[in-house]
Design a protein that fits this description.
The complex is a heterodimer of chains A (about 170) and B (about 600).
Chain A (H helix, E strand, L loop, with lengths): L8 E10 L4 H11 L6 E8 L4 E10 L1 H13 L3 E6 H4 L2 E12 L2 H13 L3 E5 L3 E8 L1 H11 L4 E6 L3 E4 L6
Chain B lengths: L14 H4 L4 E2 H11 L4 E4 L6 H8 L5 E4 L3 H15 L3 E5 L3 H15 L4 E7 L15 H5 L5 E4 L6 H13 L5 E7 H5 L1 E2 L20 H13 L3 E5 L1 H5 L2 H14 L3 E3 L14 E4 L6 H9 L2 E5 L5 H4 L10 E6 L13 E4 L2 H14 L6 H15 L18 H15 L3 E5 L3 H9 L8 E2 L10 H11 L4 E7 H4 L6 H6 L5 E6 L4 H10 L15 H7 L3 E5 L2 H13 L4 E6 L33 H6 L1
Parallel strand pairs in B: 2-3, 2-4, 4-5, 5-7, 6-7, 9-10, 9-12, 10-11, 12-13, 13-14, 15-16, 15-17, 17-18, 18-20, 19-20
Antiparallel strand pairs in B: 1-8
Helix pairs in contact in B: 2-3, 2-7, 4-5, 4-18, 9-14, 11-14, 12-15, 16-17, 16-23
Classes of the chains: A alpha+beta (about 170), B alpha/beta (about 600).
Enzyme class (chain B): transferase
Organism (chain B): Gluconacetobacter liquefaciens
EC number (chain B): 2.2.1.6
Amino acid sequence: MTMQDETIVSAVISILVENESGVLARVIGLFSGRGYNIESLTVAPVEQSRHQSRINIVTSGTPQVIEQIKAQVGRLVPVYRVANLTQVGPHVAREMALVKVVSSGEARTEALRIAEAFRARAVDTTATSFVFELTGATEKLDSFIDLMRPLGLAEVSRTGVAAIIRGPRTI
Amino acid sequence: MNATPNLNDLKPNTHAHGADVVLSGAEVLLRVLVDQGVDVIFGYPGGAVLPIYDALFRQNAVRHILVRHEQAAVHAAEAYARSTGKVGVVLVTSGPGATNAVTGLVDALMDSIPVVCFTGQVGVPLIGTDAFQEADTTGITRQATKHNYLVKNPADLARVAHEAFHIARSGRPGPVVVDLPKNISVGPAPYVPASRAPHPSYRPQSEPEREAVVRAVAAMKRARRPLFYTGGGVINAGPQACEALGRLLRKTGFPCTSTLMGLGCYPTTDRQFLGMLGMHGTYEANLATHGCDVLVALGARFDDRVTGRLDAFSPGSFKIHADIEPSQINKIVQVDVPIVGDAGRVIEMMLEEWDRQDGASDPAALAQWWQQIEAWRGIRSLHFDQDMTPSAIIRPQHAVRRLYELAMETGRDTFVSTEVGQHQMWAAQHFQFDRPNRWLTSGGLGTMGYGLPAAVGAQIAHPDALVIDIAGEASTLMNIQELGTIAQYRLPVKIFILNNQYMGMVRQWQELLHGSRYSESYSAALPDFIRLAESFHAKGMRATCVGELDDVIRAMLAEPGAVVADICVAQDENCYPMIPSGAAHNQMLLGPEQEGEVKVSAEGRMLV
């Protein structure tokens, strides 16, 4: 018998679904009903002509649990394809954040300087505030937000991860 | 729409003349049922389904069985499905009609039973307004079904209804709900026949990969201590699959055990059958599972009642697991050869490969393995001593044994349903099933109250057969209202109550784990079952001692109508053998004399 691997790993699961009412609830209900984690989730139509949407879920668990997640999601009737991008191989995973910083004086200048270094764009500017738009890997967004914290960080809105396989392969 | 067509004139494929005929949604639905080969549905009317009941009234192709509670409609449909291999069909109204059906739906989901349940819904414009008898049925049943639909557009109705049948019966079977707003069943809707095109996203795999079966058979040929572990999936694969299993067992000479749901897929009276495995399985089945070197799981899912303590489950064996549902593989137990496919196809392919591959399993090793198994069998783990003095108290195991023996004497095709609890385990242990589809029980969900409506469904499907509900007095009261259905349709169902005046399995666990503090498990204020039967136009009988038992069973079997037999059995009897929660297969308790040795860990207590 193979011994079970108890290490917790992170995985990006991409799911191509029929764009029908309730399909997101099916996927989310499955995760909550079976006690799987959802660290982030994105969903949007990707193939209007074929009524398909893509759901990207960042989750974590033992390799056995991740494999179960894939199989359980695959059971759902409106699911076309499901892939564990982390297992498939190299992939791009990006998310976007809108970060509001309210400050003045030295902190305001410092915030702008750091934003430039992160290639964040100021998409809204007032005398006392900035809204920065930043795209990148989750870790990059995390560290940007950490740096903004002492500089008047007021509010954060993040999209969650969108992911795709590198190279010519598709899911 | 002024001339409403009579459904009897609308036989399938008469579309040439009917091209201009406009049907109502309700009529389209009934035509789908006819096309799908449905001849009986179980249901209960209400406001949101009145148009469908009106259409039912004006046709004769589909028979409607009026139950007394929607939960019972689903259980009856489950038993109808399980005993015929067809899809069971349910029709209930919106709101409470749908919510009452939920327990039955989850029961069918857990036990992989094909059921299509049509639920009424308030009209589309009223959805979301907290209308009278409105419930979010698709929301509530999303995790209770294999799939569900809300039909909002009349153009989708026929396609969705056909698709519901396809999804319910294909792959791993299960329940499907179709929620029908009232305006959809009232208004006009186009009829379309079932599509032959494959479903765009749902494509279950029933054909196994040859390479996996080749590896499995190679391991089986090397085996010195092999064991087949069969489950409900073999029964779902159909009688041909069960017949093929018989050939595979004869060809290999291997022993076979079965789950609760799999009983009957191989004759339980045959020497190669070791009895059920798991918590209340036989000593030989569990010890063989523990000691085998190659375990071949067919259509079974390593349920916790089967495996006991996981890290001690069949340690050291090479595991082959065939299941039609990929998510069942490596879910609980990591296996060496996974095979995704229909159990019947897997067995057929194993038979081919067994002939194709050279060599056979070492006959000396196999003989030695059988010798070991026979030694375990010699323990006679199901043995009990019945005092045969006429005034002696009836032991429940004896009652089931005699029921089996006397039922066999009638020579009739016999179907047995059960409720849930001790009596269910005694029925599984002491009633024998030499053919599939004759054992109807709630395995996964463990639904008390399943057996009586299940007997209704089985008797509707097999009007001339002997249908017995082996019941406990507590469980059967959960759906006792179905005595009304039994009376209305003159169903000759035999309700055989092992009455120990306790929720016996609860009492047993309280005795073993909670210092015999029988908290709320006593069946107080029981009805007089004889008078209860009589008030529902059935025959009531009672046996209070061994001397009366055979006469009561004979009278019950001879009675042309329905019978409630109140069999007063020993109150303190516990169900043995058993593997205490959290223990391993080789740590079985064989009888009460070992009770003192029960040391259920804190972890085990959690598993109860």
